[in-house]
Amino acid sequence: MAKGDAITGLDIGSTTIRVAVGQVNPHDNDLHIIGAAEHPAEGINKGVITSIEDAVSSISGALDKVERMTGIPTERAFVSVNGGHILSQDSHGVVAVSKADGEIKDEDVTRVIEAAQTVATPPNYEILHVIPRQFNVDNQMGIKDPVGMTGIKLEADAQIILGLVSQIKNLTKCVYRTGTDIQDLVLGVLAASEAVLTKRQKELGVALVNLGGLTTSLMVFEEGDVIHTKILPVGAGHITNDIAIGLRTSVDIAEAIKTDYGSASPDDINKHEEIDLKDIDENEDGRVSRKEVAEIIEARLEEIFSMVNKELKAIDRHGMLPAGIVLTGGGSKLNGIVDVAKAQFYLPATIGAPRQFKTAIDKIQDPVFATALGLVLWGQGMTSPQGGGMSQLARFSAVTDATSKMKKWFKSLLP
């Protein structure tokens, strides 16, 4: 890929599809974000395609918007994968070092990663990512990069992330039908971690919680490695539904109440404070208590966070991550959410907004664009030799073979 080529990140969410386009400036080698757009998502529920036609037109809508903004047609993109069908499991690979002098080369690392990939995957699942955690050379444990070291036996501990073949095929089919090639499929929360977490946070131990519309994704890092991944089938959209039921209003009104007046800390709100529904929609009549809305939001958030906490307890990290909890995604913009997170997790909590992007577009700093921007960074890591730490991970993407197979299969279907 030549310098100056556009790198597109396509984040296919359950409620909104977002696209970010970046370009590496040939003069200073820096990544500049030149376009970003969002479009409501139809035909996608909890990260899974429920209607191909609707999903294709939603994805096309988002791509059209960003093409108008940048003036560059989108020919290929890095695409996010999400949904409750994603599984993660630990794996171990062992190989003998091939060189007679015992020096470990890149090929040995690739072979040991491949050995770790040959785990017994559940039927109908395919490997999305193999994320090496640490390598062992002979009996020395905890090596991050074994290339150039000397030894006889090389082992790798890895985390393998899998997705249901049928769901991945449906997703890739939708993207191909918009006329866009897929350069790589990347787990949404893994991409978001690139845009919002620092290297130091990943070293110390941090949990990234991406609050989407209908799913909440969790990824836990320690010593720079991914140690746990989980996608839960609840999200910020469920808070909206609860408000709609609790106040007996439509979902659209409930969403406006949540974004404009919502808060997750009812104790800070005077019990006489009211929201006039006429301010939201002149056809509506009535007033609702702002404190009641906050109580509904707090209750649902606590429920989502307790599900995340259960995952942390399962890996013995409850209250044990020094860099705490980083919240990102659209749901993280609720007032008072950080205090609820601190109380629930007994850990420091912050909002993770995308950092240090060179751009003239203001809305890029918003946590909702974390995944789309992370995909652009992932693309930069794959395409440039010095693209940061990501190129290491991107090298081991198992999806490239899958997508090239898919492409052949899909093109054979085209009239």
Task: Write a structural description.
- With 415 residues, the protein is an alpha/beta fold.
- Among the domains are: 87-164, Dna Ligase, domain 1; 199-354, Nucleotidyltransferase, domain 5 (2-Layer Sandwich).
- 36% of the residues lie in helices and 28% in strands.
- It has helices at residues 52-70, 106-117, 165-177, 188-196, 199-204, 236-247, 251-261, 290-314, 337-345, 370-383, 390-395, 399-413; strands at 6-12, 16-24, 31-40, 44-45, 48-49, 76-81, 87-96, 125-137, 140-143, 153-164, 181-187, 206-211, 216-222, 225-232, 274-276, 287-289, 325-328, 349-351, 358-359.
- The strands form 5 sheets. Strands 11-6-1-2-3-19 form a 6-stranded mixed beta sheet, sandwiched between helices.
- Residues 386-392 have low confidence and may be disordered.
State the secondary-structure class. Answer: alpha/beta
Shape: globular
Residues in helices, as a percent range:
25-40%
The end-to-end distance, rounded to whole angstroms, is 30 Å
* Mean pLDDT figure: 90
**Rg, nearest Å:** 22 Å
Q: Provide the spatial order of strands within the biggest beta sheet.
A: 11-6-1-2-3-19
What top-tier CATH class of the domain at 199-354 fits best?
Alpha Beta
Number of helices: 12
Quote the beta fraction.
Answer: 25-35%
CATH superfamily of the domain at 199-354: ATPase, nucleotide binding domain
Tell me the major beta sheet: 6 strands, mixed
CATH hierarchy: architecture of the domain at 199-354: 2-Layer Sandwich
As residue ranges, the low-confidence spans are: 386-392
CATH topology of the domain at 199-354: Nucleotidyltransferase, domain 5
Count of DSSP strands: 19
